[in-house]
Write a structure and sequence with these properties.
482 residues; alpha/beta; Heat Shock Protein 90; TIM Barrel; seven-stranded mixed beta sheet; six-stranded parallel beta sheet; 14 helices
C-alpha cells in the first residue's frame, strides 16, 4: 500500500448532512426532539488491517459540526495515547463553542472540528498514522494541524525517532542536513520558505524530528503551517528514501529487510468488471433515486446492497475518499452490481470555508482513490452538508447533486422515524438522502425499498433518473430532483 493523499484527513470516516428538505410526515417511534446519546454518536467499524478498528464520532448541532475518526487497537495499552489526544482537542474546541458571543450569526456559519487520519502499513506489525486536525471558529479562523504516530502493534508500543535510527550514529546531523536541503529543493516551496524558521526547526536536536511517518521505502517529516514558512506554504512534507538513510538506521528498518517483507506481503489482484445493462426508464412507472452518503461501510453498506439486490433496485453512493482506501472491496461491489458512485470529498469538511487549492485537494484525492480501485473517477458530486458556493461548484467539474427528500437518519437513529421521514414525502422524480454508515438506516432501507416497490416506484441511479427524459446533465448546475 502506498502513502495516501491526506486532504484534511478520516475516515471518515463518516459524516452527516445537516440540510433538510420536504414537509414533516406523521411520526411513529420516538419524539422528533429525541437526540442520540453520546454513545450513539460513536461507531466502531472493522478495517482491512488486522487488529485495527476505526472509531467515528459525529455531532451536527446548530452551532457546530464535529466529525472525528481515529484508530482503535485490539491491544488496549495502545489506545490511551491517541484517544487522549483526540479528547483533549475536542474539549478545547467545545470550550470555544461554549463562549460564542453571537450564536445567531454562528448558526448561519457553524463552527467545525474535524479529526481524520491516513494509514500506511510498513510491515506486518508496524503502521504509520498521519492525523489532520481541522478547526474553523468563524471568519478567517480556519486552522489545519497535523500529528503523527508510528505503532508497533505486536510489541504494543509507539515508536520514537531513536527507535528508527541508531543512536550510536550522528543521525541528528544527517536529518538536519537532509531535511533542510530537500526543503529548498522543492520548487513549489521556494517562494514561501523562511530561512530563520528552517534553521530553528531543523536544528540537530531530537525534538525537531519527532513528527514523522514511515513507509515501506521512506521516512517522511511533516511541518505545519507557519513552522518553516509563510502561511501560503500550508503543510510541508519532506521525504527521505530509506536507502539514503541506511547508514544511520537501526537494523530493523534497513531498506533491504523492509523490501523483503513487502515482497512477502504482495498479492496479485485481478480486476473483474461485471457487465451491467443500464436500466431503461419506464414511462409507465414512477421513479426515485435513493442516495447514500459517507460510506463505504464494511457492514452497513453491504447490508444495504443486499437489500437493493433483493428488490432489484439501484442507487447512488456518494463516497468519502478516506473510506475508499479502507474498504475497496465494498466499492467494487457497488460498481459491479450496477449502482452509481459519486464524490463526497475526502473527509467531509465544509468546502465553502476552503481556498481553491484545499477544495481541489479534497475532490481530486477522492476521485483518484475511486479511480485507483475501479479504473474510473466519479461523474457526480455531492458537497458535504449540502454546502457549496460558486467556487466549489466550479472546481468539482461535474454535476452537483443535492436532494428533495431528507431522511434525517443522522439525527433520528430509529428505524420507524427514518421511514416516516421518507415515505410521506416521496414524489415521482425525488432524490432521497440517506447515509450508509448507520445500522438504523440499513434496517430502514429494507422497509423503504419494499414500500416504494409496492407503491409502483422504480428505484434507479441519479443519472438514470435525471437523464430519463433526455436531460443532459451540466457540470455547473445543481440538481435537487427531476
Amino acid at each position: 500500500m502506498n502513502v495516501k493523499k491526506a486532504g484534511w484527513f478520516l475516515i471518515l470516516s463518516c459524516f452527516l448532512m445537516l440540510v433538510g428538505c420536504g414537509k414533516q410526515g406523521e411520526k411513529s417511534g420516538p419524539s422528533i426532539t429525541e437526540k442520540p446519546t453520546d454513545q450513539e454518536l460513536m461507531e466502531v467499524a472493522e478495517s482491512t488491517y488486522e487488529g485495527i478498528h476505526i472509531l467515528t464520532e459525529v455531532e451536527d448541532e446548530k452551532l457546530y459540526h464535529l466529525a472525528l475518526s481515529y484508530p482503535i487497537f485490539d491491544k488496549e495499552n495502545l489506545n490511551q495515547e491517541i484517544t487522549s489526544f483526540v479528547d483533549e482537542r475536542k474539549e478545547e474546541f467545545l470550550e470555544i463553542v461554549a463562549d460564542i458571543p453571537n450564536p445567531e450569526f454562528v448558526e448561519q456559519h457553524p463552527y467545525m472540528f474535524n479529526v481524520q487520519f491516513t494509514i500506511e502499513q510498513v510491515s506486518d506489525s508496524i503502521y504509520s498514522f498521519l492525523f489532520t486536525i481541522g478547526t474553523y471558529t468563524g471568519g478567517a479562523n480556519a486552522m489545519e494541524q497535523t500529528k503523527t504516530y508510528v505503532v508497533d502493534i505486536d510489541n504494543g508500543k509507539y515508536l520514537q525517532i531513536d527507535d528508527v535510527f541508531d543512536v550510536n550514529t550522528d543521525y541528528l546531523y544527517f536529518l538536519s542536513k537532509e531535511i533542510k536541503s530537500r526543503l529548498y529543493e522543492q520548487e513549489e516551496y521556494h517562494d514561501f520558505l523562511f530561512e530563520d524558521m528552517i534553521d530553528e526547526e531543523t536544528a540537530p536536536v531530537k525534538e525537531n524530528f519527532e513528527k514523522f511517518i514511515l513507509t515501506k521505502d521512506s521516512i517522511q517529516f511533516v511541518y505545519d503551517k507557519y513552522e518553516v514558512g509563510a502561511g501560503a506554504l500550508g503543510i510541508a512534507k519532506v521525504t527521505i528514501p530509506l536507502q539514503d538513510a541506511a547508514a544511520y538506521l537501526n537494523e530493523q528498518f534497513q531498506p533491504e529487510l523492509i523490501n523483503e517483507m513487502e515482497e512477502n506481503e504482495k498479492e496479485v489482484e485481478q480486476k473483474e468488471e461485471a457487465e451491467q445493462t443500464p436500466i431503461q426508464p419506464d414511462p409507465n412507472k414512477k421513479q426515485v433515486a435513493l442516495t447514500f452518503d459517507d460510506g463505504p461501510h464494511q457492514k452497513y453498506t453491504v447490508q444495504i446492497l443486499n437489500t437493493l439486490q433483493k428488490y432489484d433496485a439501484r442507487a447512488t453512493f456518494f463516497v468519502l475518499g478516506s473510506r475508499v482506501e479502507f474498504y475497496p472491496d465494498v466499492l467494487k461491489r457497488i460498481k459491479e452490481e450496477g449502482h452509481e458512485i459519486g464524490n463526497h470529498s475526502w473527509n467531509h469538511p465544509d468546502l465553502t470555508i476552503f481556498e481553491s487549492e484545499q477544495v481541489q485537494n479534497e475532490l481530486r484525492s477522492t476521485s483518484d482513490a475511486v479511480a485507483s480501485v475501479l479504473g474510473e473517477a466519479p461523474t457526480l458530486f455531492r458537497p458535504p452538508y449540502g454546502s457549496y458556493n460558486e467556487l466549489v461548484k466550479e472546481l468539482s467539474g461535474v454535476p452537483t447533486i443535492l436532494w428533495s427528500v431528507d431522511s434525517l437518519d443522522w439525527k433520528y437513529r430509529h428505524v420507524d422515524t427514518v421511514v416516516q421521514e421518507v415515505l410521506p414525502n416521496v414524489h415521482d422524480g425525488a432524490i432521497i438522502l440517506l447515509h450508509d454508515i448507520h445500522e438504523t438506516t440499513a434496517d430502514a432501507v429494507e422497509v423503504i425499498v419494499r414500500e416504494l416497490k409496492e407503491q409502483g416506484y422504480e428505484m434507479v441511479t441519479v443519472s438514470e433518473l435525471l437523464q430519463g427524459n433526455g436531460l443532459e446533465l451540466q457540470s455547473n448546475e445543481v440538481y435537487y430532483s427531476r
